Amino acid sequence: MEAMCAAAAAASEAGSPWFFNPCLVLSEAPRWVEGVWITLHLTALALVFGFVLALPMACARAARAPVVDTLVRGYVYVFRGSPLLVQLFLIYYGLAQFGFVRDSLLWPVLRDAWWCCLIAFTLNSAAYQTEILRGALVATAKGDREACAALGMSPWLAARRVLIPGALRRALPQLGNETVFMLHGSAIASLVTIQDILGVGRLVNGRYYVVYEGLLTAAALYMALTWLVVWGVARLERRYLRHLAR
Questions:
Q1: Is residue 106 part of a domain?
Q2: pLDDT tens across 193-228, in order?
Q3: Which domain holds residue 42?
Q4: Contact between 164 and 61 (Cβ < 8 Å)
Q5: What CATH number is given to the structural domain containing 122?
Q6: What is the CA 35 to chain-centroid distance, rounded?
Q7: Quick check: 183 and 39 in contact, CB under 8 A?
C-alpha cells in the first residue's frame, strides 16, 4: 500500500494521470466506517419496521378482508408504483411546506434528514414485503390448513404456529432480494445530506477533486455488503428450506 501511495504521488508530481490513489481513501477511513454504519443502520431498521407493518397487511390481503384489502392494495400500489427518491423528497421537502406540520409534535422528527429517510425507506419496504408475504401465504398448501382445522386450532393459533412460519420460510429468497434492493436504494440518502457510503464517496470526490476514488470505494463497499447479505440468506435457506431439497 505504501508503494502504491508513493507511485501515485510520483505520478502526480510528474503531471501524469493516476487512475486510483489509495491514500485519499485511507485518509478518510473514519468517515468510511461511519458511512458503512449509517447505511447498515438505516437499511436494517427500515427492513425490520417494514416487516412489522407488512405482516398484518399481508394477512389482511391473503384473507381478502373487504375494506382492509382495498386500502392495503392502494397503499402497496402507491409505494411500489412511484420511485423511492420521489417518496423521500415528498417527505423531506414536501411536509415542511405545511404550517400544521411545522407546528405539530412530529416536527422535531420530520425536520431531521435521518428520520425522513427512515420513514421513506420503511414505508417503501413495507409495500414490497407485503406482496412478498401475501404471495407466500396464498401459496400455503391446502393440506396445511385442513390439518390445523382437524387438530382443532383456531385461525389465530393456526396462523401463528403453522401458516406464518411456513410462509416466512417460502419467502426467504424474496426477502433476501428485498434486503439487497433496500441496501442499494439507501444510497439516495446522500441526496438529503446523510453521510452514508455514497455520501462519503461524494465528499471524497468533492474535497480532493477526483472521481474514481470515492465512487469505486463506495461501489466496493456496497458489493461487499451485498455479498454478506447473499451469503447469510443462503445459509438461512439451507437451514430452513432443507426439507425442500432433493
A1: yes
A2: 899 999 999 999 888 888 888 899 999 999 999 999
A3: 28-241
A4: no
A5: 1.10.3720.10
A6: 15
A7: yes
